[in-house]
Amino acid sequence: MTHGIGPGHVPRGNDAALLAAGIADMTVSGLTTVLRGVRGLLDRADMGELADEGQQELKARGRLALDRFAAGSPAHLEVLAQHVTARRGSADD
Length: 93
Known about the structure:
0% strand
């Protein structure tokens, strides 16, 4: 007898409990990894600079995402070139 999950298979009793336990274990493991990463970040001396870089990265990703769905959006490499040019201009100030 094979146990599997596929079309038409509905987990019963023990299967459902095993699936729930597996999902819970995976979630706890993932959260533990995330918390270790956060703890490592909090110990960094350049936290402010790191936060600024993260914010800039998120803004850039947001612009690209909006451009991707906008009508007549510019080419991806063109957008990246504009961002590089803008950064170089602000670094010279």
